[in-house]
Structure prediction request, 284 residues.
Amino acid sequence: MKFGVSSYSFSKYIMSTKCDYFKICDIAKEIGYDGIEFINLDNKNFGITDDPIKTAREIREYCAKIGLDVIAYTVGANFLSPDIEGEMARIKGCVDVAAELGAPLMRHDVCYSLPADPMYSWREAIVDMKDRINEISEYAKAKGIRTCSENHGYIFQAPERVEALIRAVNNPNYGWLCDMGNFLCSDSDPVKAVTLAARYTIHVHAKDFLYKDGSLPRPDGFFGTAGGNHIRGTVLGHGVVPVAQCVKILAAAGYDKYVSVEFEGMEDNIAALKAGFNYLKNNC
Prediction:
């Protein structure tokens, strides 16, 4: 396997230094990462002021120059949007950015909430979304890009829900971005969840969390899980997620591609990414 890092992991550093994406590419390379993935190249908070297509081209050329792989492109998406035609067009535009970036994968969300109808559940959402997700994946396939969705957000975070979604879409070009840490957000056991996800996994995020039982007061910096427990992002190897065990489960299932660090903790940004890389290199 190779080890990568998400541009999202540099959020604190970017916000504090106002640096551009080229700087974080340099830092990722210096630390030792083999590749980097990017999120939302139209986000002004991350130093993007020009057209995202132009930005993607410049990043692709720079990464090639310094010998850093572009792993993936990550975007938001809502396949239950009331303006679904506009949303589909926007997501296809994101695929175009991914193609210009030279990313072999594009990860997209599927929805952020469900309609207010009490009879409408995540199962109905799958029925409504599956053909739309398939359409995007086919559009991406024509450009040499695979699409995937992550166990992310409170609607499609539990492993059995993501599996049901992927099986309903039923497209070999569409798979699972397995985020081993995010399973804690749905109070799922990461080892059992990764074991389930492994057969569908086409990309991996390595993430760790600190954990406090919901019977205790919520500490500053923590957020709530679906079951009312408390978690906070932290350095790989410092939390409760069995990261190395999860990577070994994926490897045993035949996964041999990138494991990408996604850090969202309170610790020093660059020190955390150095420690995360060393943890993966020494234990995975």
Remarks:
- The first helix runs from residue 11 to 17.
- The mean pLDDT is 96.
- The chain has one domain: 2-283.
- The longest strand covers residues 69-75.
